[in-house]
Amino acid sequence: MPKVLIPLAEGFEELEAVTIIDVLRRAGIEVVTAGLHPGPVTSTRKVAVIPDTTIDTARVDEFDMIILPGGQPGSDNLNSDIRIDKLLKDFHAAGKLLGAICAAPIVLASAGLLNGRQATSYPAYRERLGGAYYRDKAVVNDGKFITSQGPGTALPFALAVVSRLAGNHASEDVAKAMLVSDAMDDEVWDQRLFNSTIQALVGALELKDTYTQGHAKRVTEYCLCIGSKLKLSEAKLRDLYLGAILHDIGKFGTEDDLLNKPGRLNRREETLIREHPLKGTLFIVGIEGLGHIVPTILHHHERWDGTGYPARLKGEQIPLHARIVSIADAFDAMLSVRSYRPAQEKEAAVRELQEQKGAQFDPFLVDVFIECLNEAPFEIKDFSYYF
Question: I want to staple 344 with a disulfide (CB 3.0 to 4.6 A). Which of 44, 254, 255, 348 is the partner?
């Protein structure tokens, strides 16, 4: 279970602190509040809170993140405490996440941690962010830092923290249970960055492998139809889109002559080809904000009967999105001309899917996909609208 430390100083903003604590605990994240001194801490509007402990007892290795609530004079009180300065630097040196909201990003700046970073704060404090690049946005993610603007952005900020610590699905589940508007989703999703990244990655892969040209988009179209039939939420459809369009990204690390070999592969060559899900995982896991789609990429060649690769997962042990991609990927492969065989007719490919129900593929999802084939024209689209 992730664990978060929240220091509280006299004059903290109670709405920010309580919102963050509430949302994180709803997501199953352990939260420890720590006063600068023993005893109750009084907020800006004179609400007294008894912290769980004091910061003198806080050990960096026990926590995954530290979050500074804003408010005044709370933020200035945090800023003037040398123990907070040391704690922040120790968290940063340990590679832990750091968050701050409202006026509190000035504390990160005073510690010299925001130089060259993108960050936000309450607008009146933007000039005190030192060498940071100020962004007028409710929530800003940059590396290990998450910053936010004020009391009104505490909820999207807290959900962004949940996404980083427990995954997008956990954040979405909490938001749904709290009846949070879908409009909040945009605050935790950098649209331009992701759209540019995805288009660049897919374009580069298509330059390497001629078979891949159009394949990723067709697979994605099939997957999104299945996802729509399953009534997945917009956020889950977006994750499915990402996993589908990047499912073969690991082929960057596969030799060209193997990808385009005319004739069947020998055992060594087949082993090398089978490494592409793992290579794709290693490629994606280092890209901030894409780590949650790793299971889709890693497991899209698992089989329902447990004889697939790389982990021999079976049945519903296989992540749902990976099961969806597996069907769409296989179907499009059957319809495509390959270096070692001609394309199959659509009817033959559908028969193959039906024959492999319960063996290679999730039987229920095959039926859903066949409904899609009977109903949708599958014209290739510009998928940027998913961002």
Answer: 348
Terminal Cα-to-Cα distance of the chain (whole angstroms): 30
Domain boundary pick from 150, 173, 188: 188
H-state helical runs in 167-233: 168-177, 191-208, 215-229
Alpha helices per DSSP H over the chain: 14-26, 74-79, 82-93, 105-110, 154-166, 168-177, 191-208, 215-229, 234-245, 256-259, 267-273, 276-285, 294-298, 320-335, 346-355, 363-375
Which residues are paired to 384 by β-bridges?
none
**Could you tell me if 234 and 253 lie in one domain?**
yes
Query: Of the candidates 245, 249, 258, which has an alpha carbon nearest to the alpha carbon of residue 204?
Result: 249
Kindly give, in sequence order, each residue whose CB lies less than 8 Å from that of residue 185, ignoring residues fewer than 6 positions away.
175, 234, 235
Distance CA 384, CA 368 (A): 25
Q: Are residues 46 and 147 both part of a single domain?
A: yes
Q: What is the CATH number of the domain that holds 179?
A: 3.40.50.880
CB contact set of 86 (below 8 Å; sequence gap of 6+)? none
Active site residue 372: no
- Residue 145 near residue 121 (C-beta atoms within 8 A): no
Residues 73 and 169 both lie in one domain:
yes
Average pLDDT of the residues in 162-187 = 80
Q: CB burial class (10 A; 0-12, 13-18, 19+) of residue 82? A: exposed
**Which one from 102, 223, 225, 372 is the annotated catalytic residue?**
102
Q: Does the reported pTM lie above 0.90?
A: no
| Same domain, residue pair 256 and 334 | yes
Q: How confident is the model at residue 339 (pLDDT cuts 50, 70, 90)?
A: low
| C-alpha span between 360 and 306 (Å, rounded) | 8
